[in-house]
Design goal:
The structure is a homodimer. Chain A has helices at about 5-10, 25-35, 55-60, 70, 85-100, 110-120, 125-150, 160-165, 200-205, and strands at about 45-50, 75-80, 150-155, 175-185, 205-209. With about 210 residues, chain A is an alpha+beta fold. Chain A has one domain (about 5-205): NADH Oxidase, CATH 3.40.109.10. Chain A has a four-stranded antiparallel beta sheet, sandwiched between helices. At the A-B interface, α1, α2, β1, α5 and α7 of A face α1, α2, β1, α5 and α7 of B.
Chain lengths: ~210, ~210
């Protein structure tokens, strides 16, 4: 299924079929899509926690106003973004680039200074919003990849982020929860699947100049 | 090409072939992908300006540190997000939903109050970051759709947003520029296409719990 057909098929799954789980290849495919989607400078300034554990999900569910997708989905892909981004992370990234493409890392000195200059100019809140935005590109890729494969997905950002951070032990790792993609298979009883998709007229969303 | 193969094929195109333009069907396909990608509550709190005009792009290029993609690409998809989001926009969205699915809009009273409650609790900066994040999901979809179709795309956020807003007349419309997808065809002379993709090891990006 191409992306557009996949996205037309997709809907915001509220209830998942708890008896149906994704297989390893499907999970691997989704991970690859998120891995290969680009991010600012290529830094990938976030992580993705794939939560399967039932006990943790029960606790997360309470911090997400009891939304059933949290416990019913096959997996939760929780995007967590960095709240601090030190020069050592940029060094690591440039080293990886130099190794991958076989050039001396010293060649990237000016580029390094440029990236560090941009990052150090951000306030703590700005930095966290910037890294979160990169995670949202990743969420977009996850939604596309799942829909292409006819895997149901419910993107979520309506949850208590502080409580999520606490349950997942994120604060001490300079990470914070950004958004979730709950993936799995729709329950036949989820009536949302029968609703028509609601979208603005194209001429309202787009303007060509 | 599936999404993962498309994303592997894609690279951050720095130089486009100015003689090659997307056709109408390709542009329509990219628009559909952005249109069908979900957003918070389904509100789509952003617009996408598709910029073709050479004069405007020359001015934008100056506000984007002369990055060649701005003038060389076939089209620029500029995502611009709302900086204000009044209750009338929520009303409009709920009316569209009621019309599309043929139920009385009065049925959505509680839902309306919930959405308005969440939005009104945001500061101006928080609101703008929230609407921008939705635009970034759209950028993720644009990147996936272009890559699937083997259309080159360079996502960009390194530009002077204030100058962009001024050139595009966004401020008076309560909009601000978030991010860009420059689409077209790679120049054979763009040496970036020969570099290997640099990505974190999968076990660093993902953690399964």
């Amino acid at each position: 299924m191409n992306i557009v057909d996949g996205l037309k098929w997709r809907y915001a799954t509220k209830h998942f079929d708890v008896t149906k789980k994704l297989n390893k290849d499907q999970i691997e495919y989704l991970k690859q899509a998120v891995n290969y989607i680009p991010s600012s400078y290529g830094l990938q300034p976030y992580k993705v926690l794939i939560v399967e554990d039932g006990e943790i999900r029960k606790r997360l569910s309470e911090a997400a106003y009891g939304q059933p997708a949290i416990t019913e989905a096959s997996q939760l892909f929780i995007f967590v973004n960095y709240t601090e981004y030190g020069t050592e992370k940029v060094d690591e990234f440039l080293k990886l680039g130099a190794e991958t493409n076989n050039y001396p890392v010293e060649k990237t000195e000016n580029y390094k200074n440029m990236i560090n200059g941009v990052i150090s100019s951000l306030s703590k809140v700005q930095l966290s919003n910037w890294t979160a935005k990169q995670a949202y590109i990743g969420l977009g890729a996850l939604i596309c990849a799942a829909s292409e494969q006819q895997i149901d997905i419910c993107p979520m950002e309506g949850f208590d982020k502080e409580k999520f951070d606490e349950i997942l032990g994120l604060k001490e790792r300079n990470l914070t929860s950004a958004c979730i993609g709950a993936v799995g298979y729709r329950s036949p009883e989820d009536t949302n699947q029968f609703l028509k998709k609601v979208r603005k007229p194209m001429e309202e969303l787009f303007e060509t100049i």
